[in-house]
Amino acid sequence: MAASYNGSNITTNQTNQFVQPPWRIALWSVAYSFVLAVAVFGNLIVIWIILAHKRMRTVTNYFLLNLAFSDASMAAFNTLINFIYAAHGEWYFGEAYCKFHNFFPVTSVFASIYSMTAIAVDRYMAIIHPLKPRLSAKVTTGVIICIWSLAVVLAFPLCYFSTIRTLPRRTICYVAWPQHYRGECQYHIIVTILVYVLPLVVMGITYTIVGLTLWGGEIPGDSSDNYHGQLRAKRKVVKMMIIVVVTFALCWLPYHVYFIATGLNKRLSKWKYIQQVYLSVMWLAMSSTMYNPIIYCCLNSRFRAGFKQAFRWCPFIKVSSYDELELRSTRLTQTRQSSIKESNSSFF
């Protein structure tokens, strides 16, 4: 998000005191451009893998699809704009995009983390209560719509109060909270709780219970001959999702701490090195959008096969018959019973 200011205190810092040398801007440009390229390209491939292959169109994967879409969108619409504004201290993009620039990151992050929360709950139900009905495609679509609707409601104040102002030597984009209202810090605390603390607590509880079940006891409903194979598959899935969640948590923690700290202590915003701190925590937060495709590719055979197909034009990428089989629809000769067990144990 861009800087927040009280509407009655906007006349200070009319000049840009955070001018950087060209070499430093060049280094930050490379870093942010790398995040943009990897995040957008990687998440678009994830979306293609899920939509182009019937075997990948599972209820849980639709939450992954939503996660990939929100990450790709935030990387495309906010990463470089955030960098340009933070590096130059000058807003070049007009009032309409100023409102979108402040509004969309909160919306996107909310959609991302609650997609991960929905996956955690889905895994909990599949492993702890395998005999209970799973989410249908219609219910899954409804959950995704609700996630985005709640995200829009939460981020709406940033859109409503965002504006630009032309000062003597520069133009700024800021959140002009109402006069005599000091709610920016409270708002950041609410956002931190709703889009960081609360979902991480829910995921921590669900994955702890699932982990204790997978590594410490019998899985309810599993007594088939291939029990150990299914157990290994479920453990791999949970490990991968825990890595996804921990990566997200580590990337966004400094960002939330930064906004709460600067909201509580306004003098920090005038500190000599605060711009470099902000660029660092913002880069780390934005980089969260690029890690998931890498994690999927490294830890899941079906996504790895999909990435190989996407890069098969590269001379050093070889797509084997096993890779092609990974993304084919399940064989028609499977019995109904084995299909039910696969749907309960398979994540992708």
From TrEMBL:
Where does the record place the G-protein coupled receptors family 1 profile domain? 42-296
Enumerate the UniProt keywords alphabetically. Cell membrane, Disulfide bond, G-protein coupled receptor, Glycoprotein, Lipoprotein, Membrane, Palmitate, Receptor, Transducer, Transmembrane, Transmembrane helix
SUPFAM superfamilies assigned: Family A G protein-coupled receptor-like (SSF81321)
- Please give an example of a GO cellular component term from this record: plasma membrane
For biological process, the GO terms are: positive regulation of flagellated sperm motility
One Pfam family, short name: 7tm_1
Q: How does it sit in the bilayer? A: Multi-pass membrane protein
- Location(s), subcellular: Cell membrane
Q: Return the InterPro entries for the record.
A: GPCR_Rhodpsn, GPCR_Rhodpsn_7TM, Neurokn_rcpt, NK3_rcpt
Any GO molecular function: tachykinin receptor activity
Q: Give the transmembrane region(s).
A: 25-51, 63-88, 100-121, 142-167, 187-216, 237-257, 277-299
Taxonomically, the superkingdom here is Eukaryota
Q: Which pairs of Cys residues are joined through disulfide bonds in the record? A: 98-173
- Stored SMART domains: 7TM_GPCR_Srsx (SM01381)
Q: Which family does it belong to?
A: Belongs to the G-protein coupled receptor 1 family.
- Which protein is depicted? Neuromedin-K receptor
Q: Which organism is it from?
A: Amphilophus citrinellus (Midas cichlid)
